[in-house]
Write a structure and sequence with these properties.
Elements lengths: L1 E6 L6 E7 L3 E7 L4 E6 L4 E6 L7 E7 L6 H11 L16
Antiparallel strand pairs: 1-2, 3-4, 4-5, 5-6
C-alpha cells in the first residue's frame, strides 16, 4: 500500500492520510460530493476517497481494472518503483533506470 495526504489549502499542513493501493499516479476532485478519485497504476485500481472529514479521510469505494499483463510484469513493477528495496529507503530502481 501507498499513502496519500490531505493538505490544508491555506497552511499546507497535512490534515489527514489514507492508505491507497500501490502506485498512486492521478487524482480527480469532485468538490460537489467531497470526493477525490485516486488512480493507482501498479494496482490498476481507482479509489474513491471521502473527504467530508479531512482529518480522517475514508475509502468510499474501490474498483480494480482489468490488467492483461502477465504476472511477472505486474510483480516486477512494484519492485522497480518501490523505495523499500533500496539501501537508503529514499530512491527506487526507477530513479536511475
Amino acid at each position: 500500500m501507498d499513502r496519500i495526504g490531505v493538505l490544508s489549502g491555506t497552511t499546507g499542513r497535512v490534515l489527514g492520510r489514507l492508505d491507497v493501493p500501490p502506485g498512486p499516479r492521478g487524482l480527480a476532485v469532485d468538490s460537489a460530493r467531497n470526493l477525490v478519485y485516486v488512480y493507482s497504476r501498479h494496482a490498476l485500481a481507482i479509489t474513491a476517497v471521502d473527504l467530508t472529514a479531512p482529518a480522517a479521510p475514508l475509502t468510499a469505494d474501490r474498483i480494480t481494472l482489468f490488467n492483461p499483463e502477465p504476472a511477472y510484469i505486474r510483480d516486477g513493477r512494484e519492485f522497480h518503483y518501490s523505495t523499500k528495496y533500496s539501501h537508503n529507503g529514499a530512491s527506487s530502481c526507477d530513479s536511475c533506470h
